[in-house]
Amino acid sequence: MFGIFKKSTNELIVNAPVSGTVKSLKKVNDQVFSEEMIGPGLAIIPEEGKVYGPFDGKVKVSFPTGHAFGIEAKNKVEILIHIGVDTVELNGKGFNKKVESGHKVDTSKELCDFDLSFVKHKAKASDVIVVATNESIKDYKLEKIAHEGNKIKHGQPLFKLVKK
Amino acid sequence: MATSLKVKIIDPVGLHARPASVVVQKASKFKSDIEIHASGKKGNLKSIMGVLSLAVKKGAEVEIIAKGPDEKEAIEEIKKTMKENKLI
Fold first, then answer.
1. What is the ipTM of this complex?
2. What are the tens digits of pLDDT across the range A117-130?
3. How far does B26 lie from chain A, in Å, by closest CA?
């Protein structure tokens, strides 16, 4: 019993919020992400426009434009899910967000759905970026579970944060 | 003590992920505690979620307050960074 409790605070599995193909953050066409300025993680080239929660957690930030969400896990690790590159410029067009700050989420809960072909054509890229914020993972190490080129379904493990 | 800076955000999309992350990175280099106050709420300027959760829009007036041994330098550098990133 104590073993299970220990595991859940020492390790957090971040599941893919979208289905698609895994891409290295270094290849994302935005310095903020490719240089891990917000933090480390992975990106997914989406094959459909549905975004789900990455784990059991709470929405900390829900951008009014629906293109980015900050989710906090029970162990206080924060994950930023950013849909597309430079999508802030679309000013919400093509995005239909379904959650607000304070809402509880899990891997079956949709955060938003978006028009994939619209974003592919109008934004710099449609990559869904999933990063753990530097300041929330000071005591953790990121270990990739999925790798570049892997096909992944939403809800499947993408990477994990393990306590140092 | 404490050194503060009051500015108006001019970026058409407000304080969004890109410029916010540059400012957060800069703020994190200092020893002082640094807060950002906007619309009656406050956030830790060293936390990207803390800043983004304030959802600061264009035209909003924000106040940045630094408290600590390098507070003056921190405010100067943050002001410079915000100008460089066309936030103010």
1. 0.81
2. 999 999 999 999 99
3. 11
